[in-house]
Structure formats: structure tokens, C-alpha cells
Amino acid sequence: MTWVRLLLTLAFALPASTRLGDDVSLALNVRSVPLDPTNPSRRHLGSLRYRGGLVLRSGDPRFGGLSDLRVLENGRRLVAVSDCGTAFLAGLTYDERGDLRGLDDARLRPLMAPGGRPLTEGEEDAESLALAPDDAFVVGFERRHRLWRYSPGRDPFSLPPEPLPIPPASVNLEPNQGFEAALFLADARLVLLSEANTGPETASGWVGNDRAWDAFSFPLFYLDDAPREPFRPTALAALPGGDVLVLERRYPPLAVRVRRLPGTAFGRTWDLAGTELARLAPPLTVDNFEGLDVAPGPDGELRLFLISDDNDCAKGGHRHGTSDQRTLLLSFSMFD
After folding, report:
1. pTM of the model
2. Are 152 and 135 contacting, i.e. CB atoms less than 8 angstroms apart?
């Protein structure tokens, strides 16, 4: 081991008092952001109504790179996973109008590998997070493509995971084009999406379980303002009636959109075109959004949450605090 690598290893090692499965308290700087900085009173975006947004920053080099999230307990608790192999856990707070106001009790928890060992170099890149029917968390990784199932319970990621079988053809994906999005459907099948092209206008997808997987081509959409760069899927979420929301990101130029698919889209009708609900592009508050969830808010109103990956947690020689991207957490309610 070179001296440089040794110093990096020591610099980012966990404190001696921290064991795998333990939380690390996180000091966060949290600031509210409008939907439209040029018109702070703006609240509507397509079929969504803005219910508050936050910029999250921390001096802790382990924070950042948040790639997917799930919102639990009627909008009161957030669980996310990161490119650096950690889980981010926090409470969500709201103002008197029910708009997202802040976070409390923010914590980081290192993810464990099977057998309870720490993650090794190249294993850290958690990209997707799915909540199973039994409330277990299934994490999809890239670089080394795999699915790990973490036990259900109020204290997620405190126990070692169980490896799950993956679609055989997924081993051929490029290292940085793994399981970008994951979602359990109402019938308990798991949908997996990659950003990888299977053709000029499609990406790789699978639906099924450990006994059988059906491969399919997921359409990539090109819009007139950027005809050479498509929107690629980065996250999935389920609506109460069974329909599915897809978060899609494009760069360059930067834009994201949310698209609604019918619940029968995966395996029955294969209607994967759906309907666009909303699109975010400058000058609106937008960044590298990779996480999406839908959950009741504290008032029972259905909320949609987006989180962005700032690519700023320290790994692979990257120095924390040097990225131009931000960690944004935005909240919307849905209306007809």
C-alpha cells in the first residue's frame, strides 16, 4: 500500500468507537429553497404543487452522493443510500402549512456486506433502494452489480444483508450502468432499470424475482430542446392505485422529469410511454436528481419527494466539498 493510499484510508476510516451497524450523528446545514428562484411565489409545476425544498450540506466527508430514498411514517422519516456505501437516516419536519421545513436527528450508517464485513473498494456504489412487501430494504449496486436484501424493522441496515439473485444478463452491463432504479410492484415482482442503452432509444430493464426474470427494453425519450441527449431513468415509485412514477434525468443540458405509467405497464400491456407529470429545468431549482418516492404526508395528503446526488462524498480520490452539485430534497403534492 502506498503512503498516499494509506493516508486516505486512515483519513476516512470510521472512528474507533464506531462499529458496523452503528449510527454516526451528522451535523447538517439546512436551507430552504424556492421552486423558482426568479419567481419565489410560484407553487405549481405540471401536475404537482410545490410543498417546500431544502439544500443539505455537511462538512462530514462521508455525506453526499445520495442516489435513492424512501419516505416512511407518514412523511416523518427519510432513508436514503449513497455512492459511498452509507445509509442516510433523518426525520422530516414541516411548518404550520404542512410544507417541508427541515430535518432532525440526521445520521449516517455504514452499509454492511454479507457476513457482517465492511464494504470493500468497488462495492460502495449504492444506486437504488426498494422497499419489499415485508418492509425489507433491497439495495441495488453498480460497479459490481448486485442486489442485497437488508432485514425489515425500525432500525434498517443494522444487520448483515442477504445476497439476492440478479438477472443473468445484467452481469454484462457497464460498471457505471447498473441497477439505477428499483421498485417492488403490487404483485411483489421487482422492477430493475439501468441507464445502459440496448439501442439508440432504449435502456435495459428486468421484471420478476429470483426464480424468473423477464427482460425488456425501456424507452428513452428525446425532446426537441436537446435532440441528441435522452432522458434516462434514475428512480421508480409506486402510487396507491398501482400506477408507477419514473424519475428521468438528462444531461446535458440538465433537466429532469416525472412520468406516470399504468400499473399494467410491466408485463401485461407494456405501455411504457405513459404521461409526463412535470419537468424541472433551469431557471427552476434543479440538480442531479436520482431519488424518488411517494408517501402520505403528515396531513395524509399524498406527497412526492425528490433527492439529488451531489457526487461529493469522499471516495476514489475525490475531495469532499469540491463538487459544484448540490444535495436537494424537494417535496410536492399531487393534484388533478
Report:
1. 0.93
2. yes
